[in-house]
Amino acid sequence: MAGLDAIDEFESPWFSRALAGVLALVAIATVASLIPGPQWWLRIFDFVLEVLLYVCLIGGVLALWADRWRWKLIAGFTLFGSMLLALIWPYVVVAPNEIDLGKPEGAECFSLLTLNVLQENDQYDRTLDLIRERDPDMLLLTETNQVWLDRLMPVLERYPQRMAEPLDNTYGMIFATRLPVQRAQMPMDRIADLPTLYATVTIPNAGDFELIGLHPRPPKPGEDVETRNQNIIEAGAKTPDGLEEALAIGDFNDVPWSKTTEQFREMGNYGDPRAGRGTYPTFPSWAGKFGWPLDHIFVKGGLHVRNFAVLDDVGSDHRPLAADICMVPESSN
């Protein structure tokens, strides 16, 4: 009898109305994400497209028990679910892989780790332990102020090449590597008050590549994304030394299926290791598979991704992102 009572609750008018309300919200968010423009209240919908797809899947199944508008609800969830699937299609696990993973024959590799530490996070030891355990050859940390720089110095001292721009506005940056660095700079965007990393780095016995480290401002109330979009697109369009091999990493405050990141990739001819393998969300750290992929690793030219992974929570609102990057010496090509 308890099971029948539960079915009766599903078949109540309130259940149908609740599903209709959810469908209306999905429709509004989906349509809003399709509207071009830098307004924060439009671009914020880009972030939740994957979550909305899950809502459509669940809503479509629950609509089978609706006593009112059953087929209209099923049709609505199916329609918008199909639209959402098309919008994020390259990052669905059944989509074709964009780039192959693995170490090409004769390649030399290095490990990297990137993390937005969350400036207000005071669990410094968890990040220290992560860096000690992973011992990456290259490290990019964002949201780092002077306190974070000081607290991390016991592990940063392991790296002969270091550059930092500690800031108290949540846009500080730390770069450290044991690879030889030919040149490196962190020019400040005086409008957005944030740095961008440009470096030319050598993989011993392989060759040089250019590195771009990004952490632009996100869409939020009172702050549209013209500056973020410009920062992302211009950073990848032309690297300082114009090398064919380039690596772009960091917290982009943008999802990979957005028009901005798509334009960044198209202009720079970057490949994404996630495409065809899933979204690999990194934010918020507690959300797991239902979060947003805001942290990125893109490669182009002769750079290859051997493997990559989103790591466990270390106290920040972002999860760390790690990868092994490889390059085949020109003489081996």
TrEMBL record:
GO MF annotation: an example: catalytic activity
Residue ranges of the TM segments: 14-35, 47-65, 71-94
Keyword hit for Transit peptide: no
Cross-referenced Gene3D superfamilies: Endonuclease/exonuclease/phosphatase
Segments forming domain Endonuclease/exonuclease/phosphatase: 113-318
Keywords, alphabetical: Membrane, Transmembrane, Transmembrane helix
Native source organism of the sequence: Erythrobacter litoralis (strain HTCC2594)
Lineage: Bacteria, Pseudomonadati, Pseudomonadota, Alphaproteobacteria, Sphingomonadales
Pfam family, one: Exo_endo_phos
Protein name: Endonuclease/exonuclease/phosphatase domain-containing protein
